[in-house]
Design a protein that fits this description.
By secondary structure, this protein is an alpha+beta fold. The protein contains 3 helices and 8 strands, in the order αββββαββββα. 21% of the residues lie in helices and 31% in strands. Its main location: secreted.
Length: 240
Amino acid sequence: MQPCCYQEALAAAVNTYNQESGLPQAYRLLEAEPQPQWDPSSQPAQPLKFSIKETECLVSEKRDVSQCPFKDKGLVKDCKGLYAEEKEPPVITAKCEDAGQEPQLVKRVNWPKSQAGYEDAVTTAVDIFNQESGLPQAYRLLEAEPQSEWNPSSQAAQPLKFSVKETVCPIAQKGNLKQCDFKENGLVKDCSGLFTAGKKPPVTAVKCEDTSQEPELVTRRKFWKKILNGALKIAPFFLG
């Protein structure tokens, strides 16, 4: 695939939104926020920021939206997305909300490397899953599998393993996920991802699959207790 320019990435994002929104009217690009550091050959996903406006064309007509006139008093939406050149399709998210309302977005964290803890990485991975899943309900961390060799300053990609459970909160609802109650009989998913401290966003390749068993809920205290227990188990081998 040839490197894509910013305008082409935006066009792909608008097309993705029109095909996945479920709305009858097609939307067309209205304004794009310049990205001075846009690098079409970059491997990490890069942000897209733009607004769109409702047109007179129907999505079902499959017309070139650049030829569709804007609808008189048509709705305007503010959008954000992520673009990754190596993925197919390259635009991996395209979320839009009515203008004046802040979209529910992926949490971007620029941690100092010394503070890039495993729990922080897992939290960001959960946010990415919620943003990209296309599911109506938000999911919350249920259990994180400790990684005893976790090194927050490593430049190499490191694995994340965790599980999430469906909550009562819609993704579109603003608020802290920690305040969302788990849904009774909510779905549970086993997840994996990769964390690379030197990349933006640092968490990539988040994948979650349904599981038939519900893992035990891990609190912050239990999370560190598990790591401590793991260290105690291997200590005798080093102490003789």
